[in-house]
From TrEMBL:
Belongs to the SNF7 family. Transmembrane segments: none annotated. The keyword Coiled coil applies. Residues 11-93 form a coiled coil. InterPro entries: Snf7_fam (IPR005024). Keywords: Coiled coil. It comes from the Eukaryota. Residues 109-121 have a biased composition (Low complexity). This is Charged multivesicular body protein 5. The keyword Coiled coil applies. One of its GO terms (biological process) is late endosome to vacuole transport via multivesicular body sorting pathway. The lineage of its organism: Eukaryota, Fungi, Fungi incertae sedis, Olpidiomycota, Olpidiomycotina. It comes from Olpidium bornovanus.
Length: 131
């Protein structure tokens, strides 16, 4: 008797499972009616084309012009350090416009002044000195 009850219970469970599978199948069919595989493939193709175009743009922007392919990083670092040292040295120097003027001897008081221009200017607008 227990075995018959067990078989009956098992059959009821199977029927519930089959009904659930039928309901799920019906719902999936309804949802798949809204899905168009051609639209999905077209969308995938468009995405692939756009990503390929983005890669081409990145390759184009990443080109190097006039630079050798085998740039030595150590050489670049050494050059950068040298530039930094040069800039630090330049910062320590006093700019020309702030430097003290050179000692230029002034004429003695009472010394003769240069002769003044006399006469008419020539065609270039300059006066001829009469010494």
């Amino acid at each position: 008797m227990d075995q018959a009850n067990f078989a009956s219970e098992n059959l009821k469970n199977t029927m519930v499972t089959v009904e659930a599978m039928q309901a799920a199948n019906k719902e999936l069919k309804k949802q798949y009616k809204n899905v168009n595989i051609d639209k999905i493939e077209t969308l995938q193709d468009e995405m692939e084309d756009m990503l390929e175009q983005a890669n081409l743009i990145q390759e184009t922007l990443g080109r190097t012009y006039g630079l050798p392919e085998d740039v030595d990083e150590a050489d670049l670092e050494a050059e950068l350090d040298a530039l930094g040292t040069e800039m630090a040295f330049e910062e320590e120097e006093t700019p020309v416009y702030l430097a003290e003027p050179a000692d230029v001897p002034l004429p003695e008081p009472g010394a003769a002044l240069p002769a003044a221009a006399v006469g008419q200017p020539n065609e270039s607008g300059r006066f001829k000195l009469n010494v």
